[in-house]
Amino acid sequence: MDGEKKRRGPPSRYPWEEWFAKERFVLHRGLQFPESVQPHGMAQTIRNAAARHGLGVSISIFDRGLYVQTYPREKIRQSWNRRPDDWKSKDEVKQRQRNRYHKMKESNNEAGNAKCR
Prior knowledge:
Layout: H1 16-20, E1 24-28, H2 39-52, E2 55-62, E3 65-72, H3 74-80, H4 90-116
Antiparallel strand pairs: 1-3, 2-3
């Protein structure tokens, strides 16, 4: 087993390792994936496989296929992982919402008063 992780289940229908080795690739319906598979369905299959391979993907669908761009998953997670000291408390969030509400109310009152003059 040489330290490789073995995937359970039947062998993959698609050559994911070959495709994901490239930064960008194009898949044509009827060539790289069957005519019976809708491009939107194949796009989701690619997203799932990319996640299993620790990658993120950006996919554009065109009439007869897909344009796929891969990138390291860490790029996405950097924005997700905020430190707890960066988080705002509920009180701070509520106060900010109150301030926005009052500013909006004041500007509406001033706009209404300007119309009456």
